[in-house]
Design goal:
By secondary structure, the chain is an alpha/beta fold. The protein has 20 helices and 14 strands.
């Protein structure tokens, strides 16, 4: 009986695990009952389902198939197991894994949805681990900011990987899959890489060229390096993205002007006041983190000489006081939040609190704002999740703005923004070509390693034969002969190696390089793989 055709999906409600045969390899055998018969499936590394045998339904047992069925599996499915082994161990030369990004941003989803998916930085490592435990996800990383929630992943199956990440996002947010799917975007391979490069460069930000997003991408890279799920491919992708972001900012004028969410928030507040004069307003800043620092910087530049800062601890406020000595920064503890809000005309909120700090009942009882600012209290909430409850906007004497309202500021100088974006896109294309060349070069990595190992095996063997004929030989002379043999091998391999390597400026196409790879594999018989692990797996099935 020949091996059955591979299937990529087995209905979840119809399958049950009946026999884990190799926990060390993460392999399992599953049964799938259909009518009077059933299939026995194997999964290697939790990646694919492979039918091993078609058996009568009555012969499937909870503790595993009968011995006769196991022997039938061994006898009839060696080809299927070999196929799995090749696709798992030699994926570079059979099927390249896909890079994809799945998520939503300020361009595709409202803040009401984004805040449900927002993930604090402290939870990123756990999220990476959970994502990499999915059947088809090899690598994963999370980029969660006030303007976006994006999952970057490497998957052996792009479509199934997208399904798994979508289900995971639905699970952590409580948003039904159908509702979530309508707001999500997904990009694959070069498009996914280009998107990240645009993000790091500030081209996809609400405020073009904003600098904070590059720092956030760097933080993703830093945290990712400490996790198992941040593998070789994503590591290179994010390194290249950071390099791109730096180039765009140093080689173009994209960073000129208002280049952060905080600066746009200050500009928005100024637009709400008569003649844009913020200096007459009483200003309260809630939080003392990075975004608050930028707020203080831009508020001081607008003539605000006195600011009240409410924060859990005083230390960060002291640091701000030492940095901005030209302004009076007054610290107040979080317990004084409502009192300070009642004495302020403009309130900026920037905390990482997962629940609102201001509700309709408390805000409606506050004293009215000054007549000099029109008697209306202004909340500028640039936190995600929001620090100001949506119901606060129902109060007639209060106006609430959040990050989605910054479009009013962004709309200015639209043509100038387009020109700057075109300059940056040229740099992004160059960096994309470098990354694509790096990915293409992975095709030949196994062959290069095999060829070097093959040559080294011959060199070491011939060296020992030569040295043994000399009898007693000094360490110095042995080293001279050893170095000579290594130089000869290196020079002989130089030509073939050059025809297996590629970079962004290479004149050879990847097709030509792959043809060279296959030619070398045939000439030196490099396609013969070590099948020990496969044989061990088949042997265990027969026990």
């Amino acid at each position: 009986m020949s091996a059955l055709k591979t299937v990529s999906f087995v209905p979840a409600l119809s399958r049950r695990k009946v026999w884990p045969y190799d926990k060390g390899k993460r392999g399992e055998v599953w049964s799938y009952n259909k009518g009077c018969c059933g299939f026995i499936f194997s999964t290697l590394f939790g990646r694919t389902f492979q039918p091993l045998a078609l058996v009568p339904r009555g012969q499937l047992r909870e503790d595993g198939p009968s011995v006769s069925i196991v022997h039938q599996i061994k006898a009839s499915s060696r080809e299927a197991l070999e196929h799995q082994s090749i696709s798992s161990f030699d994926r570079y030369t059979s099927e390249k894994s896909s890079i994809f990004v799945l998520g939503l941003s300020v361009h595709t989803a409202p803040i009401e949805l984004r805040e449900k998916l927002s993930l604090p930085e402290a939870e990123w490592p756990r999220a990476i681990e959970e994502l990499c435990n999915q059947n088809h996800i090899e690598e994963a990383v999370v980029l969660s900011t006030c303007n976006r929630m994006e999952i970057y992943a490497v998957a052996v199956s792009w479509s199934l990987g997208v399904q798994e990440v979508t289900k995971w996002l639905s699970k952590i947010s409580g948003i039904p899959i159908e509702e979530l799917r309508a707001q999500l975007f997904t990009l694959q391979n070069r498009d996914a890489a280009q998107h990240l490069f645009r993000v790091a460069s500030g081209l996809d930000s609400l405020v073009l060229g904003e600098g904070q997003i590059l720092a956030q991408v760097k933080q993703v890279y830093k945290i990712g390096q400490k996790t198992v799920g941040f593998g070789k491919c994503l590591n290179e992708l994010f390194m290249q993205a950071i390099s791109t972001g730096k180039r765009v900012r140093s080689e173009t004028s994209i960073s000129a002007g208002a280049v952060s969410v905080s600066s746009a928030a200050v500009e928005l507040a100024a637009m709400k006041f008569p003649k844009g004069n913020l200096s007459v307003a009483r200003v309260l800043v809630v939080g003392a983190g990075k975004m608050s620092r930028l707020l203080v910087k831009h508020l001081v530049s607008k003539g605000c000489c006195k600011l009240v800062i409410v924060n859990r601890s005083e230390q960060k406020v002291v640091e701000l006081q030492n940095e901005f000595t030209e302004a009076e920064l007054v610290y107040q503890p979080l317990s004084e939040l409502l009192r300070c809000a009642g004495e302020a005309d403009v309130i900026f909120t920037t905390t990482t609190s997962e629940s609102p700090l201001f509700f309709k009942k408390e805000v409606s009882s506050l004293k009215a704002a000054l007549d000099a600012v029109g008697g209306r209290r202004l909340f500028i909430d640039i936190s995600v999740p929001r620090n100001v409850s949506a119901c606060v906007s129902e109060i007639p004497s209060v106006e609430v703005s959040n990050v989605d309202d910054l479009w009013e500021v962004v709309a200015a100088n639209k043509e100038e923004r387009k020109r700057k974006a075109l300059e940056a896109q040229l740099i992004i294309e160059q960096e994309l070509n470098k990354f694509e060349a790096w990915r293409d070069s992975l095709e030949t990595v196994p062959t290069i390693k095999k060829l070097r190992a093959y040559a080294e095996k011959i060199r070491a063997s011939e060296l020992e034969k030569c040295v043994s004929k000399f009898g007693v030989i000094s360490v110095k002379n042995r080293k001279l002969i050893d170095d000579l043999s290594r130089r000869i091998v290196s020079k002989l391999l130089h030509g073939p190696m050059q025809h297996l390597k590629t970079d962004a400026t290479s004149a050879r196409s990847i097709t030509e390089i792959v043809e060279n790879m296959h030619a070398l594999e045939r000439m030196f018989d490099l396609k013969t793989d070590d099948s020990t692990s496969l044989e061990q797996t088949v042997t265990k099935l027969s026990v």
